[in-house]
Design a protein that fits this description.
Length: about 120
């Protein structure tokens, strides 16, 4: 990945950067592996939050560049006998976690959701 960053910087005649390509690659990999916030990454690498965001975005874009688009992937998958989809399950911190447990699902326009009797 550091080589990708180094090549990209040479092509674009990039201005001076706070991190060298190896440290930027480490920053991107730390973000992808641990999911740290940009503020935490910035503090760890002695750069600003916005700079951390920009460096991570640049690295992810470089990794995604050789990938085919969704339309081409689906077209190719349709020609195969079977397709295995692999994904990552990402833990989230739900803001709606304190909703009442009796609300079992979505109530449509013709359905009435009633609360259980109060005790």
């Amino acid at each position: 990945m550091a080589e990708l960053i180094r090549t990209r910087r040479a092509e674009g005649r990039s201005r001076w950067r706070k991190l060298d390509p190896a440290r930027q690659a480490l920053l991107v990999l730390a973000h992808l592996r641990n999911g740290d916030t940009y503020a935490r990454l910035g503090a760890g690498f002695a750069i600003g939050t916005t700079t951390a965001w920009r460096y991570v975005r640049e690295g992810v874009d470089l990794l995604a560049a050789p990938a085919e688009n969704v339309h081409a992937a689906v077209t190719r998958a349709a020609q195969l006998a079977y397709t295995i989809l692999d994904s990552t399950l990402i833990p989230i911190d739900r803001l709606a976690d304190d909703w009442p447990t009796w609300l079992a699902g979505w109530c449509g326009p013709r359905l009435r959701c009633r609360a259980p009797p109060m005790t």
